[in-house]
């Protein structure tokens, strides 16, 4: 079997964690390659809810866990998360030597920069992700191997730069000691491990964090995250050749959410949005913020499918729309009198476009106990035609077993 890449096609929170857990049994390992503790991936087994920020969502499926070099690693969050796992699962984690670390000063800077931006703040998760990647680009960040190798860290330049930026560098030495304790015995070469698994006939499941529209280069800049969220980043983020990036499986909800600032053409408010938010538990898994709610946006989704080369789609949260009379699907944007279905062309004025909707669809009252109901089948056919993909998985509830393979 080839490697498989689970990637989000919207603004994050598409249900990637649930699907990774569901699919993990078929793979030797699950690997994260981007983002950091800004991710919040929820896995529900029976009545128990688990949220992962850094540990790959294959942890409860008993799989080998890999964190690649492309991840911005907050060792304090990692340590907390590991403490919640059974000891066996803890032993299965390998962190790449080259992962750059998120320092406490990065978190302080994240908050300070958001304050400076004022009314145009990004609405970050305040996890220090932007500053940590900036420090890496400045070649000032510490990498995982630096803190584990005794004497491998020269904190001088980093401390001076933080001080000049007005961040508090006083806790850095202590933080390095904590990071060392968390990482000792867990470091390795994740790219080489992925290749070894392939050589011995196994395969790896790649778990993206965030979503395509939050990609630093191709998303709704500047309202994006600071890493790359597309499947094309998998080889770079893990240190493997392009040929091993695997088959992409795009994940999309049957409506859209967004958390934080930025344009959102299909956003809705009022009672319907509130009902969807409650039914879908649409509150940030990392920050607890209520998520903004909107209808499914085919224009944006088509762009995301193209960027990832996704031929397969997993559609999630169908159960949430069972309680809604009818829903809409945006098929093009209107701007200054003309209509276009091209997301990229609309990107510069995304905040001003008016969504053009297809006549209402419905999943009202749909039940999933004995397979895919007719209304859902109709939605699947509609999306397969509109997006030129094959829908291979349906998620109709957060619990692991509420999944239908087509
Ligand atoms: P998962 O993996 C949804 C959003 C933040 C903010 C912007 C930048 O659970 O899908 P950052 O802290 O990354 O600098 O914030 O990106 N964001 C997410 N939104 N799901 C996520 O991850 C997100 N990670 C970051 O809300 O708008
Ligand atoms: Mg999430």
Q: What does the model show?
A:
The protein has 406 residues and is an alpha/beta fold. It has three domains: 4-99 and 185-249, 3-Layer(aba) Sandwich (Adenylosuccinate Synthetase, Chain A, domain 1); 102-183, Adenylosuccinate Synthetase, subunit A, domain 2 (Orthogonal Bundle); 252-405, Alpha-Beta Complex (Adenylosuccinate Synthetase, Chain A, domain 3). The protein is built from 14 helices and 21 strands. It has helices at residues 16-24, 75-83, 87-91, 104-117, 129-137, 144-148, 156-164, 172-183, 190-199, 234-238, 270-279, 298-308, 343-346, 374-387; strands at 4-8, 29-32, 41-45, 48-52, 64-67, 72-73, 93-96, 100-101, 187-188, 204-211, 247-253, 256-258, 267-268, 292-294, 296-297, 312-316, 327-335, 338-340, 354-361, 390-395, 403-405. The strands form five sheets. Strands 9-7-5-2-10-1-11-16-20-21 form a ten-stranded mixed beta sheet, sandwiched between helices. Strands 15, 17, 18 and 19 form a four-stranded mixed beta sheet that branches. A hairpin with a 7-residue loop joins strand 20 (390-395) and strand 21. The longest helix is centred in the N-terminal third of the chain and has 14 residues, at 104-117. Bound molecules: 6-O-phosphoryl inosine monophosphate and magnesium ion. Residues 8, 11-13, 38-41, 122-125, 127, 129-130, 209-211, 214, 225-226, 259-260 line the site of 6-O-phosphoryl inosine monophosphate (IMO).
């Amino acid at each position: 079997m080839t490697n498989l890449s689970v990637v989000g096609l919207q603004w994050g929170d598409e249900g990637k964690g649930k699907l990774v857990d569901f699919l993990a049994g078929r793979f030797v390992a699950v690997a994260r390659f981007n983002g950091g503790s800004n991710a919040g991936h929820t896995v529900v087994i029976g009545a128990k809810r688990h949220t992962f920020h850094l540990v790959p969502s294959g942890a409860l499926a008993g799989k080998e866990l890999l964190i690649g070099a492309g991840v911005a690693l907050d060792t304090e969050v990692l340590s907390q998360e590991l403490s919640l796992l059974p000891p066996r699962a803890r032993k299965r984690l390998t962190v790449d030597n080259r992962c750059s670390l998120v320092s406490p000063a990065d978190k302080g800077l994240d908050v300070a920069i958001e304050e400076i931006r004022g009314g145009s703040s990004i609405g970050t998760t305040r996890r220090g992700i932007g500053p940590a990647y900036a420090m890496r680009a400045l070649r000032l960040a510490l990498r995982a191997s630096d803190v584990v190798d005794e004497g491998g860290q020269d904190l001088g330049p980093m401390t001076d730069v933080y001080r000049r930026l007005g961040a508090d560098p006083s806790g850095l030495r202590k933080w390095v000691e904590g990071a060392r304790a968390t990482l000792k015995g867990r470091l390795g070469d994740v790219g080489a491990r992925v290749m070894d698994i392939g050589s011995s006939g196994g395969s790896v499941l790649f778990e993206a964090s965030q979503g395509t529209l939050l990609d630093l280069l191709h998303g709704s800049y500047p309202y994006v995250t600071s890493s790359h969220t597309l499947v094309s980043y998998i080889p770079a983020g893990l240190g493997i050749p392009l040929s091993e990036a695997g088959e992409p499986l795009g994940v999309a909800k049957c409506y859209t959410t967004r958390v934080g600032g930025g344009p959102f053409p299909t956003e809705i408010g009022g009672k319907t949005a509130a009902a969807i938010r409650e039914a879908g538990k649409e509150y940030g898994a990392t920050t607890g913020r209520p998520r903004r709610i909107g209808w499914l946006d085919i224009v944006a989704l088509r762009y995301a499918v193209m960027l990832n080369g996704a031929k397969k789609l997993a559609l999630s949260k169908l159960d949430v729309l069972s309680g809604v009379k009818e829903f809409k699907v945006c098929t093009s944007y209107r701007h200054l009198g003309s209509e276009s279905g091209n997301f990229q062309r609309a990107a510069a004025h995304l905040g001003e476009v008016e969504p053009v909707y297809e006549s209402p669809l419905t999943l009202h009252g749909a039940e999933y106990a004995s397979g895919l109901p007719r209304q859902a089948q109709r939605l699947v056919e509609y999306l397969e035609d509109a997006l030129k993909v094959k829908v291979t998985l349906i998620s109709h509830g957060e619990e692991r077993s509420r999944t239908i393979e087509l």
